[in-house]
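Subject: complex prediction, re-run

Hi both,

The earlier run crashed halfway through, so I resubmitted it with identical inputs.
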Amino acid sequence: MKRDYLILLLVTLVAFTLPLILPGDYYVEVFLFMGINILVALGLSLLMGYAGQISLGHAGFYGMGAYISGALTAHLGWPVPLAALVALVATALVAALVGWPTLRLRGHYLAMATLGLGIILYILFVQLKGITGGASGLSGIQPVHAGDLYLDTPRRYCYLVWSLVILAFLFSLNLVKSRSGLALRALHYSEVAASTLGIDVAKYKLQVFVFSCVLAALGGVLYAHYITFISPETFGFMYSIKLVVMIVLGGMYSLWGALLGGAFLSLLPEFLHRLEDLEVMVHGLILLMVLIFLPGGLTGLIQKIGEKIRGSS
Amino acid sequence: MAQLIQYIFAGLTMGVIYALTGVGFNLIYNATGVINFAQGEFVMLGAMLLYTLQEVLHWSPFISLPLVFILGGVVGVVFEYGVVKPLIRLGVITVIIGTIGASVVLKGGAMLIWGKNALAVEPLISEKPVAFLGASLNIQVLVVLVVTAIAVAIFWYFFGFTILGKAIQACSVNPLAARLAGVPVERMITLSFCFSGALSALAGGLIAPITLAEYDMGTMLALKGFCAAIIGGLGNNPGAMVGGLLLGVMEGLSAGYLSSGYKDALAFLVLILVLFWRPEGLITRGKGERV
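This time it finished cleanly. Structure:
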């Protein structure tokens, strides 16, 4: 546990120095979007690694955050913090509505339900033209500012994003360590054993799911108010898959998996510009290869190497 | 009245496809406890393969459609050996993630091979629509209903009256007891994947002339097939058949009388409501769960 906080300190140092030393706005922006991806992935990592459930609709929750907060500032001129708060609360309510019936049941109903919800949210983003701007997108989203200080350069916004990423990690690490975290771990291993010990399995799973969706929505809010123009394709099924790939690649059983996997998949398109249509398939192949050959993901690999080194010295 | 019949038949046609997909889900679920997220891709492959055999190679539809059924079975077996077997020892959740990966790979692969455009496939029998109680019915609709009825009859006979079919059922009820009774459980699981792939591919081949064949048609069909399986109670094959038809007709009516833009949302609503009120399915009687 102590080690986790050391890692977090290290991550904080890197996150706050990198925007200063990266050679241009483009790279700072890549780092910024990496932060958003990691934030969304962190929530999913809690859900998959600790509650043992899969969500295939996180792109939809990400989109809900972006569209609700974006539309409230663009159409009604609401201040950003208030709009963001409404977006987070609304997402939490929808998540609870879907999670409540599906998480009471043993098995993997949530995955299919969230897959369906993701598709419906996407349809809504395209169809509700009056609010979302339809397929051509929503413009006029307000940037974030505190008084006269506008967070409209990549560098300034980067600090905002990464501060929230680090806060989210801090909160999640505490959550994992807390009584509910231990309960969650227990139900990952055996739901039956956990419930005989008096752990309210459904309640814990629902809490994690809702928290995970709120993090996704927060990512969406951050994305919308930076880019100030959003269109539906950002929030499609493929992003949900990409998030699952991040978690599996990074390692499902450690929160740091979200960091590693998120970082890796955010950088991948920078190297694979020419792939375009192939990107989807590459994601699927990464997913299968990691599951078959490296079930612990990157964090599992690092742990194994660490044990080997300690073992040989 | 004529309009109502038209909507109901349109709904029944799609319903049959959902039903076949739902049974495909059930076969794999009963054998392994895994919800197969690549099920929709099996359907898509069926549609695409039919396009290749019929429109590119110009084979007779009467050869192509049975061949699609057989190739679907091959896809199912390859899928089991490639994705499910290597992952099953790591637990059900890992296999489920694996099937998600496989579905993305299949979808991406289909896009590379067949392109992004929707492909037209000639119907099995190209005749003019017939009049029925004032409604005009596409012949393919009748073909879909008849072929499905034949497939269901064969399956009903197979599972109800043959040793092999009963062995598969025994494995899904209690694998350990089946093994003790001398049933080769592994081979029965492979057979389940084979049937699941074959039925889903057949569904794809039947629907292709009506909805066109497209590389990304699978996700939606999977969701609705799953919904059919849930309405009938996951794992219950007759239930999935009824569930599929029910969902299809509801969809047909809502597309006709309400709005076609939101008809895809209906399946999801039904799914959530059924999970909420009767997670064991609308058709089955409630039963306690084994720990």
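Chain A touches chain B through 42 residues (CB under 8 Å).

- K.
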